[in-house]
Amino acid sequence: MSAQLNTAISFRHMTDGDLDAVMAIENGIYTEEDVEKVHNHMFEELGKAGCPSIDGLYYSASSHKTDMYAKPNAGMFKRCEKEVPHVKFNKGYYAGDRLRDLKAAMKIGAIPVIIRTGHGKETEELVMKRFSYRDIKKKCLVFDNLAAFVDYLETAH
Question: Which listed site, 19, 28, 78, 135, has its alpha carbon 20 to 30 Å from 62?
């Protein structure tokens, strides 16, 4: 496993995988400054692992349906594509462990990917049994963990 991937997985464990940053901000558990500190730490660790740069990091501090930047709305992704022109979500994958991640992937034309860690197993069960999610089910890839998804990407391309 690559050093970059080890760092990414370690970061996920460091954040417990259970606490959603958006919900933590909305509920006053974390401030946006706290999230920025975590992001800075993540960038430092990725740099130490050999990652030369990150083109951008986007998140919404809101989960309100009316917020154009909150997932599953596409505002955050459109902003990224405008600010980082070589990023084209409709030519790639979008991985997550929640239904809102999969819905966002569908809205931006990316291939939705469920990662079974965190809330991924529950999300997978929901998608597989509900008829209303049939379009997501048809396009979705599922992996046990982030390492398995990276392995797939390395061998598929």
Answer: 135
Q: Are 72 and 103 in contact (CB under 8 A)?
A: yes
Beta bridge mates, 111: 93
Distance from the first to the final alpha carbon of the chain: 17
Angstrom distance (rounded) from CA 65 to CA 58: 17
Query: DSSP letter at 19?
Result: S
Distance CA(115)–CA(72), nearest Å, equals 17
Residue 22 lies in a domain: yes
Task: Indicate the pTM of the whole model.
Answer: 0.76
In a domain, 1, yes or no: yes
Token code pair at residue 3: 């050093």
Span 19-65, pLDDT tens digits: 466 666 777 777 888 888 888 998 899 899 888 888 888 888 778 88
Does residue 156 form part of some domain?
no
Biggest CA-to-CA distance, the chain: 45
